[in-house]
Design a protein that fits this description.
Blueprint (H helix, E strand, L loop, with lengths): L20 E9 L2 E10 L6 E5 L13 H4 L4 E5 L20 H15 L4 E6 L1 H12 L4 E7 L6 H6 L14 H11 L7 H14 L2 H11 L2 H7 L4 E4 L10 H7 L3 E3 L10 H4 L1 H18 L1
Parallel strand pairs: 3-4, 3-5, 5-6, 6-7, 7-8
Antiparallel strand pairs: 1-2, 2-4
Helix pairs in contact: 2-3, 3-8, 5-6
């Protein structure tokens, strides 16, 4: 009698709703094949929430926030083209590196896989992309949430690209120290591991760091905000350099409303105070879902 065990396929392991999974979405951009890296969390059949990150970060900045939203939503955080593990925009892409280009690539990739509208949240550069996405694809964006809206003053427009100038590699490693000091200055109280992650991501994206800031400056955001018809929630932390833009942004939006984050919240609020962000996003997005 043959005592050998017969092979049987392993049981499929279902992840917990709070488990963060990773993968790639495909997009055709100007006839070229591109892949955008994502993190996802929650049940795929739940209402779709799309998270868009700041510069020079990646979807990694949402790892603490995503599980807090996963009970009610399918949460999808995308690496912007050229950042994290996403391919850059093709060299032949119309307009070069632009907010419109980022929004178009993200829309193509997400809509090709998930054929339904999304609730969209963006932080800083991600907020600029979110506005562009709602302006260009109004049927795709059910509601919008903006943290640190990019309605910039003339002084901010002049300073922003200078704050992200490319730091050339140095044989002695001085470039590491310069980048470390730049990113620590954003929040000197941030965990060292967070600053280290951001420094690595800043070097990974290369020239896209400065180029994305220039793209934010060049975006014609005022008429876009005025044309957006979906409900929009706008907020910023007390230490966010873009906090002063909250009220003017709300005034431009036909269906805008303001909310508040803690006074000690800054540029890394999604990493460091995810519960405060979730407490704003969850009821707002649920309100939109329940309204149908």
């Amino acid at each position: 009698m043959d005592q050998r065990r017969r092979w049987e396929p392993a049981a499929v392991i279902e992840p917990f709703p709070s488990t963060i999974r990773r993968g790639y979405l495909d997009a055709e951009l100007c006839g070229e094949f591109a892949q955008l890296h994502f993190r996802s969390c929650g049940r795929e059949e739940a209402p779709l929430v799309l998270l868009l990150h700041q510069t020079p970060s990646s979807s990694a900045m949402y790892q603490n926030l995503m599980p807090l939203l996963a009970r009610d939503f399918f949460v999808l955080a995308i690496d912007t083209p050229g950042f994290g593990n996403s391919d850059p925009l093709p060299a032949t892409f119309p307009g070069g590196i632009s907010i419109a280009g980022f929004a178009d690539a993200i829309y193509r990739a997400v809509s090709s896989k998930f054929d339904r509208p999304a609730l969209v949240f963006g932080h800083h550069t991600g907020a600029a992309i979110a506005v562009q996405l709602a302006f260009d694809q109004p049927a795709f964006v059910r509601a919008l949430a903006l943290s640190g809206p990019t309605l910039l003053t003339d002084e901010q427009k002049a300073a922003l690209p200078l704050a992200a100038q490319t730091i050339a590699a140095d044989a002695e490693g001085a470039h590491w120290q310069r980048m470390w000091q730049r990113l620590r200055a954003k929040d000197p109280q941030a965990e060292l591991s967070l600053s280290q992650r951001e420094a690595l991501l800043a070097f990974t994206c290369g020239d896209y760091y400065e180029a994305s800031y220039r793209a934010v400056v060049e975006q014609d955001v005022v008429p876009q905000l005025a044309a957006i018809q979906c409900p929009t929630l706008v907020f910023a932390g007390g230490r966010d350099l873009l906090r002063a833009a909250v009220e003017p942004t709300v005034q431009l939006l036909p269906k805008g409303r303001a909310a508040e984050l803690p006074e000690d919240a800054g540029t890394y609020v999604c990493d460091r105070q995810p519960a405060a962000v979730a407490e704003l996003l969850q009821p707002f997005f649920l309100e939109i879902v329940r309204a149908g």
